[in-house]
């Protein structure tokens, strides 16, 4: 074994591979390209995953949004097509009867799907979404408070008419560098004191529209706009260790019971399950990684077949040499090991060159991305971890063994007498 890894063995390997260097380079390129494609595909998948998940950063993904719709079935004398509204009493009922919930946030809204809403400040006007919320909403949706503060429970309990405005609202209603905190805006004719500004990040919506929102206390909203005890919709988040997807059927049952809705009426309560959508995205990226490995290994396999063919040619060219070595007492194992070692060496060198090339390309891409704002992009930080490199090396070693196996077996089948007769 020590003779196998001696200087003479390596010199023989280098001489054999460099005797026809152009053929060797073309053969090695197949493996180089296969590993390059594998690494680039995996890195691109990670870059896309990082970008998509950036849109969920700060958001409680184990959440759902729920709203009332029309009853699609008659029940207990009540007609089909009946409209109903959630009530403020539904919130404690859900909290008390469904175990595993972290937040149940009632919400009301002006603007958006309910139509335009006029917000006035002096001579400036604008149409913005206005939300009546509880303080917990900031833990359920991503929002950076850039100045002042967000809603607190003193605002809720005292029904304070205060507002937190987005950067888009600020730029529309205020002059540059004008003081915002402590000023008043008029929403549907009602004055609200601005106590904070925010900026949202992520790509889970229109980035520009996300900055054109106004948040006020839920209680003040209900009082100012005559909502009474009506709740437009709810944002509900499950605790860690629970799935909102599994809990939502219990929530729907409570709503149906409290509002006299047929238990089999699945259309009466509308919902958007963020956790379910997030799980689908995770499943998508698992599938993308599988495709990357599948395509990369197929491309690599074509390179391995090329190396195997070349090693068969090399064995054929060295028939006389092998015959002489056998006649001088070389064992079949030493002949087999020499051919396998040449195959593995060529495979690993070309494969490592592919990894280096892919790393250089990824460095250039990341360098370009570092010069621009990626906070709202769907593709950031394409990279692969060290585990992928080890997997690639393992694939290379196994591939090298497979590529040299058939040529090595052919080499030891050569009889010394027949080999010496070969011209």
Describe, in plain words, how this protein is organized in 3D.
- This protein has 423 residues and is α+β, with helices and mostly antiparallel strands.
- The chain has two domains: 7-56 and 279-421, no CATH class; 63-272, no CATH class.
- Helices cover 52% and strands 17% of the residues.
- The protein has helices at 7-18, 21-54, 90-97, 137-140, 153-157, 167-173, 207-210, 218-224, 244-258, 274-317, 319-327, 332-370, 386-412, 416-421, and strands spanning 63-68, 86-87, 101-110, 118-121, 124-127, 129-133, 144-148, 162-166, 184-187, 190-199, 213-217, 230-231, 233-238, 269-273.
- The strands form two sheets. Strands 1, 3, 4, 5, 6, 7, 8, 9, 10, 11, 13 and 14 form a twelve-stranded mixed beta sheet that branches. A two-stranded antiparallel sheet has the order 2-12.
- Helix 10 (274-317) packs parallel to helix 13 (386-412).
- 34% of the residues are buried.
- The mean pLDDT is 83.
């Amino acid at each position: 074994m020590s003779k196998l890894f001696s200087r003479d063995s390596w010199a023989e390997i280098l001489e054999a591979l460099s005797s026809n260097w152009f053929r060797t380079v073309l053969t090695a390129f197949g493996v180089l390209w296969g590993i390059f494609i594998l690494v680039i595909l995996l890195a691109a998948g990670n870059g896309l995953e990082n970008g998509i998940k950036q849109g969920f950063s700060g958001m409680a993904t184990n959440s759902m949004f729920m709203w009332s719709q029309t009853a699609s079935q008659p029940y207990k004398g009540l007609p089909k097509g009946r409209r109903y509204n959630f009530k403020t009493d539904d919130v404690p009922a859900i909290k008390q009867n469904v175990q595993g919930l972290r937040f149940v946030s009632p919400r009301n809204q002006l603007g958006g799907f309910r139509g335009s809403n006029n917000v006035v400040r002096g001579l400036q006007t604008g149409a913005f979404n206005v939300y009546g919320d509880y303080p917990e909403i900031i833990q359920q949706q991503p929002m950076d408070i850039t100045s002042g503060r967000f809603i607190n429970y003193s605002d809720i309990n005292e029904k304070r008419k205060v507002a937190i405005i987005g950067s888009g609202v600020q730029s529309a209603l205020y002059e540059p560098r004008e003081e915002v905190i402590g000023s008043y805006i008029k929403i549907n004719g009602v004055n609200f004191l601005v106590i904070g500004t925010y900026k949202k990040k992520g790509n889970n919506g229109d980035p520009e529209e996300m900055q054109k929102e106004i948040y006020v206390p839920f209680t003040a909203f209900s009082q100012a706009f005559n909502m009474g005890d009506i709740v437009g919709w709810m944002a509900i988040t499950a605790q860690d260790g629970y799935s909102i997807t599994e809990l939502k059927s219990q929530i729907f049952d409570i709503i149906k019971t409290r509002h006299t809705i047929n238990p089999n009426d699945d259309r009466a309560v509308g919902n958007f399950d963020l956790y379910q959508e997030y799980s689908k995205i995770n499943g998508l990226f698992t599938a993308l990684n599988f495709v990357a490995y599948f395509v990369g290994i197929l491309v690599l396999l074509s390179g391995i077949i090329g190396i195997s063919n070349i090693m068969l040619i090399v064995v054929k060219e060295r028939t006389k040499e092998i015959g002489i070595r056998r006649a001088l007492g070389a064992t079949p194992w030493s002949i087999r090991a020499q051919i396998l070692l040449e195959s593995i060496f060529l495979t690993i060198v070309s494969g490592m060159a592919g990894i280096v090339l892919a790393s250089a390309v990824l460095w250039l891409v990341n360098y370009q991305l570092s010069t621009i704002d990626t906070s709202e992009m769907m593709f950031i930080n394409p990279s692969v971890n060290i585990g992928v490199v080890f997997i690639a090396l393992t694939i290379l070693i196994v591939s090298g063994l497979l590529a040299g196996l058939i040529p090595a077996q052919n080499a030891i089948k050569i009889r010394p007498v027949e080999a010496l007769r070969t011209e």
